Amino acid sequence: MIIRIVTLKFEEKDIPAFQQIFAQSKPRILEFKGCTRVDLLQSTEDAGTMLTYSHWESEDHLNAYRKSEFFGSVWPNTKSMLIAKPSAISLIQLSE
Asked: What is the total count of domains within the chain?
């Protein structure tokens, strides 16, 4: 299993718009083959820092999503609100 964590930095005024994008996107993301979980997290130290947390059966499944038409239609709106370069990490879960 691959766990993907993406850190996104927004101005606080843009957080409600991003939360709406995420809420509308989450069901569609979960429909992608290999996606078993997707959540939105917010930093306790900085309200403008949001993280997406997702589980994928394999890196191939994650990459298929990242190359999808859906991702290509959603990412530009999110990216336009960012105030810093996003960071992402993919992790392999070793134990439960």
From this structure: 1
75: CATH:
3.30.70.100
Write the pLDDT tens digit of every residue in 20-70: 999 999 999 999 999 999 999 999 999 999 999 999 999 999 999 999 999
Q: Three-class SS of residue 1?
A: coil
| Residues 6+ positions from 16 with CB-CB distance below 8 Å | none
Sheet with 2-9, strands from edge to edge, namely 35-42, 49-56, 2-9, 87-92
Q: What is the pLDDT of residue 94?
A: 87
Q: Which domain holds residue 33?
A: 2-92
Report the alpha-carbon distance of residue 93 to residue 71 in Å, rounded. 24
Identify whether the C-beta of residue 43 lies closer than 8 Å to the C-beta of residue 51.
yes
> CA end-to-end span of the chain, whole Å?
11
